[in-house]
Structure formats: structure tokens, C-alpha cells
Design goal:
Blueprint lengths: L1 E6 L5 E7 L3 E6 L14 H6 L2 E6 L16 H15 L3 E6 L1 H12 L4 E7 L11 H12 L3 H13 L3 H13 L1 H4 L2 H14 L3 H4 L6 E6 L4 H11 L5 E6 L5 H4 L1 H12 L2
Parallel strand pairs: 3-4, 3-5, 5-6, 6-7, 7-8
Antiparallel strand pairs: 1-2, 2-4
Helix pairs in contact: 2-3, 4-5, 4-8, 5-6
Length: 265
């Protein structure tokens, strides 16, 4: 596995790993899957299909950079642009969840730098804030030293997971130091989506080919948000896959096939 290092336009250093050889593809994972390990089954399959899959830790999930609430999506887009420039090619993007929102912002900020894009259930804030009052409640719990409670609120009231899976996931994350340290980043990521707001007027100007992926078993609001996004993109198509918001983990071959077929066009 190769590595590259680069510096963003505001001086933040970025270190990325590259799996495979071929046309570069930057994978922007969602949320607290900060290293993109949720795509570990898909990445080697894409590499075998002739892609160099590039991953790096997004700013929100780098505690060493300080308060994650200081960052916006535009700051993360600077990091993606720096990595793309270091790769020296028109780079394809694959964004999952909040990484999908970041993908759209990258296409708007530097359209000439990127080729096609794949967006898997980007939770765009199209009809009011995504976090809103729930984000405020989660931040209050975090400030009170209750990171697990903050994540229960996030999973249950924002993502839309049932209470028991929300409780189990939140407790599991809070139990491991490397994840507990990044819970503030998850909430900052959500705040950044709210700050972007309804950006569909901008999305209408994106001419890049985009594949929108939706899971058949995901919370309903994610499909609604994706449909709102797809309705305004001038060069987009959709793919419905059996499964939920982490369907790539159970169907890696389907994801690798569909993504590579789309990007080959």
C-alpha cells in the first residue's frame, strides 16, 4: 500500500493511502468510519478492476487538529483538492453518507479537478436542518461528559435507527478510545451539513456524471434526501441496492461491479 503526503491550501497536512494501480479514485467515507474500514471488502475488488483507491482521514475526525467544530465542508474540500492535485489526474470521487455531501461540495468548488462521482446516501439538508434540535441535544450531552448519550441521540434521532441498535452502537463506540475521541467530530460533521443547508441550486450546475446509490432497507429519510438530490442533478442516474446504509459490507462484489462499470463510461 503506497502513501502520499500533501498540504491543503490553508496549511493542513494530509496523508493518504493508495490501494491498487490505475485510474485514481478518492473514497470519502461517512461519519465515524474515519479510516474507511467499512469499505475494506470493496477496495481490493476495485483495485483488481484497475483503480487506485485513495483514502485519508477527514478533518472532522483528526483530534490532533483541535476543535472539530472550527471546520466546514469547504475546509474538507480543500483537503480533497490537495490530494487530487498530488495525484495529478482528473480524479473520480466516491462519497458515502456525509462523505457524499462532501463529494458534491468538491464538485462545486473545483469542477475541473474531478471526473465522475458516486454518491451513496448523502444526507443533504434539503428541507430544513439535518441535525437541528437533535444536534443541540447531542452537543449538550457531549459537553456534560456523556459521549454515549450524544451518539444515541445521533443514531436514533438523526440517522433514524431503532433505539436498541442505537444504544448498542453508541455504547460500543464510546468504549473504544480511538472512536470516543472522534465522537465530537461526528457531531461537527453533522453541524457542517446543516451549515451547507439546502444547496440544490448549486447542485443544478454540476455537469459531472453521478451515480446515486440507495439502500432498500435504509431509513426512509435517506432515500427521500437522495431523490431530492437526484431530481436536480442534470447528469445523474440511480441504483437501488438490497440492504441498508452499510450495504457495501454485505454486497462488496455488487458495489465494485456497479461502480467500476459506471466509471468506465
Amino acid at each position: 500500500m503506497d502513501q502520499i503526503e500533501c498540504v491543503s491550501s490553508d496549511g493542513v497536512h494530509v496523508q493518504a493511502t493508495i490501494t491498487g494501480e490505475g485510474r485514481p479514485m478518492i473514497l470519502l467515507p461517512g461519519g465515524i468510519d474515519y479510516e474507511g474500514t467499512g469499505w475494506n471488502k470493496v477496495v481490493p475488488l476495485l483495485a483488481r478492476r484497475g483503480y487506485a483507491v485513495v483514502r485519508f482521514v477527514r478533518r472532522f475526525y483528526r483530534p490532533e487538529l483541535g476543535d472539530p467544530f472550527q471546520w466546514k465542508m469547504a475546509d474538507e474540500a480543500r483537503d480533497v483538492a490537495a490530494v487530487a492535485q498530488a495525484l495529478g489526474d482528473r480524479v473520480n470521487l466516491v462519497g458515502h453518507s456525509s462523505g457524499g455531501v462532501l463529494t458534491l461540495e468538491c464538485l462545486l468548488a473545483d469542477p475541473a479537478r474531478y471526473g465522475a462521482a458516486v454518491v451513496f446516501e448523502a444526507p443533504i439538508a434539503y428541507a430544513g436542518p439535518l441535525g437541528g434540535e437533535q444536534l443541540a441535544s447531542a452537543r449538550q450531552a457531549l459537553g456534560a461528559g456523556q459521549p454515549a448519550k450524544a451518539m444515541i441521540t445521533f443514531f436514533r434521532d438523526v440517522v433514524g435507527m431503532p433505539l436498541l441498535p442505537s444504544w448498542l452502537s453508541a455504547r460500543g463506540l464510546a468504549a473504544y478510545p480511538q472512536f470516543r475521541a472522534r465522537i465530537p467530530g461526528q457531531l461537527a460533521d453533522l453541524a457542517a451539513i446543516d451549515a451547507v443547508g439546502d444547496h440544490r441550486d448549486g447542485y443544478r450546475t454540476i455537469a459531472h456524471p453521478i451515480l446515486g446509490i440507495m439502500g432498500t432497507k435504509s431509513p426512509a429519510h435517506l432515500g427521500e434526501r437522495m431523490q431530492a438530490m437526484l431530481a436536480v442533478l442534470p447528469n445523474a442516474e440511480s441504483w437501488s441496492v438490497k440492504g441498508g446504509h452499510a450495504a457495501q459490507q454485505r454486497r462488496p462484489n455488487e458495489f465494485a461491479d456497479r461502480i467500476s462499470q459506471f466509471l468506465r463510461r
